[in-house]
Amino acid sequence: SLLLSACGSQTPQEEVSQALGLDVSGGRVASASDDHGGFHGDGTTFVELQFSDDEALEQIEESGDWEAFPLDRAARALVYGVTEETGTEEAGITVFQTGPYLKDGGGNPLVPEIREGYYRLIDRHAEAGESDILERSSFNFTLALYDTGADTLYFFELDT
Q1: Which residues pair with residue 109 across a beta bridge?
Q2: How many whole angstroms separate alpha carbon 67 and alpha carbon 56?
Q3: Cut 0.90: pTM above it
Q4: In whole angstroms, how large is the CA radius of gyration of the chain?
Q5: Sign, CA torsion 23/25/31/34
Q6: How many whole angstroms separate alpha carbon 152 and alpha carbon 136?
Q7: Which residues fall within 8 angstroms of residue 131, CB to CB, at 6 or more apart?
Q8: H or E segment at 44?
Q9: Are 38 and 61 in contact (CB under 8 A)?
Q10: CA–CA dist 118, 106 (Å, integer)
Q11: Residues with Cβ < 8 Å from 39, sequence gap 6 or more?
């Protein structure tokens, strides 16, 4: 388990609560890391919170800001990666792999496959509405996934 670097004195729960507008103070930190730093503040924050009740789930369901699984293409590419084929049998098929962007040092997704849950993708890029998040040269987004089967919230902020 990684320690959260002290950027101010916020706990991982406070950081997640502030970013998502939820009270997740009752969550137990299973994993947390933050390598934001440097001149531009680039880096990745990852927090995994586990809950012993439905307190966070009830807030998610009431908020209206979250989507039920399955993940849309952009969220799926960011978390797990997507493989797509273009072309024809005759002309040749090209396979493109997009993502995952939220991965460990070995290139594996940080989040186990979630069967049932909710997610919220917050695009914090300056030109947010203008283009597909996956078509950009830099990322500024917050992504949260809630696994209803495991009562676990996965939280990411990626800034490049």
Answers
A1: 103
A2: 15
A3: no
A4: 17
A5: positive
A6: 30
A7: none
A8: strand 43-50
A9: no
A10: 26
A11: none
Low-confidence ranges of the chain (pLDDT < 50): 1-7
Residue 126: the pLDDT is 64
> Partners of 104 in the beta sheet?
none
Q: What is the pLDDT of residue 3?
A: 45
Which pairs count as long-range contacts for 62-67, CB under 8 Å and 24+ apart, including other chains? 63/21, 63/22, 65/21, 65/120, 66/118, 66/119, 66/120, 66/144, 66/146, 67/118, 67/119, 67/120
Residues 6+ apart with CB under 8 A from 103: 109, 110
What pLDDT is stored for residue 10 in this prediction?
84
Q: What is the pLDDT of residue 11?
A: 92
CB-based burial of residue 101 (10 Å sphere; 0-12 exposed, 13-18 middle, 19+ buried)? buried
Instruction: For residue 146, give the nearest of 18, 27, 3 by alpha carbon.
Output: 27
> What per-residue confidence (pLDDT) applies to 125?
77
- 8 A C-beta contact, residue 25 and residue 16: no
Residue that the structure tokens 């586990």 belong to: 50
Q: What is the pLDDT of residue 63?
A: 93
In one-letter notation, the amino acid at residue 132 is D
- End-to-end C-alpha distance for the chain, whole angstroms: 24
